[in-house]
Amino acid sequence: MLRRALFLDRDGTIIHDRGYARDPETVELLPGAGTALRHLADAGWTFIVISNQSGVGRGIITPEEMDAVQNRFLALLAEHGVEIAASYLCVHAPEEACDCRKPSPGCLLRAADEHGLDIGVSWMVGDREGDILCGKSAGCSTIWICNDEHPVDPALPDHSAADWNDILRLLGES
Ligand SMILES: [Mg+2]
Ligand SMILES: [Zn+2]
Predict the structure, then answer these.
(1) Of the bound ligands, which one is closest to the alpha carbon of residue 131?
(2) 131 an active-site residue?
């Protein structure tokens, strides 16, 4: 049976966005994220992280630094009893024109195929326009986490959320 997934941006969605993060000590969950994801896991949601990490392709951070940050991220979620089924990290610079960098839906479609996920009942959550475009072009419902740094045309996402409590409510899981 195909499962419903929550496709998740990482930086600015689950953890604070530290730019081209290289220091695992700076990884910090956003308020309510761990608790909300635990609640959603109990309700049967599968979590897939889809993250652009072009700092690697741009030569700003090393693959090892990216891995250290990602491992810390997974460890913080594990402290809340939350497991990410899979993470798809695009390491390419924009000019490489890969098919995995958001807003391309490449990673999302691959994840759905590899993990037996039903895109039509799945959602994409993110803080930037690229997240919303990725989810929409794949056929997901979309939630934009409102923020002033990365404004999005309000007509673009299906829903907007102020925080993780809002996300739970929109998913019908509050
Ligand atoms: Mg983000
Ligand atoms: Zn890529």
Answers:
(1) 1
(2) no
Residue 1: pLDDT band (50, 70, 90) is low
How far apart, in whole angstroms, are the C-alpha atoms of residue 88 and residue 60?
19
Confidence of residue 24 (pLDDT cuts 50, 70, 90): very high
Q: Are 5 and 122 contacting, i.e. CB atoms less than 8 angstroms apart? A: yes
Catalytic site includes residue 11: yes
50 Cα to the center of ligand 1, angstroms: 10
Q: What would the 3-class secondary structure string for 133-165 be? A: HHHHHHCCEEEEECCCCCCCCCCCCCEEECCHH
Distance 103 CA to ligand 2 centre (A): 10
Using the mean position of ligand 1's atoms as its centre, give its distance from the Cα of residue 10 in Å. Answer: 6
Tokens of 81: 């009893």
Q: Which ligand is nearest to the CA of 129?
A: 1
Environment class of residue 154 by beta-carbon count within 10 Å: exposed (0-12), middle (13-18) or buried (19+)? exposed
Task: Tell me the whole-structure pTM to 2 decimals.
Answer: 0.97
Q: Where are the beta strands (DSSP E) in the chain?
A: 5-8, 46-52, 86-90, 123-126, 141-145, 159-161
Class for domain 5-31+56-119+140-167, per CATH? alpha beta
Domain ranges, ordered by start, for the chain: 5-31+56-119+140-167
